[in-house]
Amino acid sequence: MNKKEFLYEGKAKKIYNSDDDNVVIEFKDDLTAFNAEKKGSEEGKGALNNKITIELFKLLENAGVKTHFVKKIDDIHLLAKKLDIIMIEVIVRNVATGSFVKRFGVKDGTKFDKPLVEFCYKDDDLGDPFINDEHCKVLDLLHDDNEIEYLKSEARKINDILKSYFLERKLNLIDFKVEFGKTSNGEILLADEITPDSCRFWDVDSNEKLDKDRFREDIGNVKVAYEEVLNRILNK
Ligand code: 5GP
Hints:
14 strands
């Protein structure tokens, strides 16, 4: 593996320089919640998230979504294109739960007629505050309305693809967070990860949670749930 200098460590991943065009992403076993107030670790979670991300990024690429994914390296590493990450967390919700329920007092589990796209400013010190289109421009996170619309339409497209893919696997995609970045020539690509750390999945028959809410809510069997998501991806 061509892993050169260390660049950055996040809550669940480490990034290393690889060459002029690419970075190596390492998936860690660490788990955090509530802006890292709650910390834990599950041996093998990094490998599961690497595998899940690779499968889902291949799926999205094949469906026409431009992503940073280049290739798998090994169990916990993948190679991705080097990007300037846009400091926005793009959240798509199909069902009200989590912070939406806390903010708006809507009954947990209420289905939305249409998917809801939200933006958060990616800043741990500020607790990733919710922002609107105008904040994106004032804070210079995106340059114009075209870029804002592009992120929203890509997020909706990703949701359409993933929602039907997981429904075939008896999982309801409740909500998820994605991130995007720009190449040196200004092209916007899907970046980061798509895993049970960044999505909520509920079993279609039992409504059992198969995602990081098991850690957030101390339900237990976190790794078993992530394994179940990977199994459903691989063995449909
Ligand atoms: P909520 O706003 O309800 O806490 O989260 C909405 C969705 O976005 C959930 O699927 C959640 O896992 C994901 N999400 C929100 N913020 C983050 C974050 O900082 N990191 C990760 N990995 N996922 C997030």
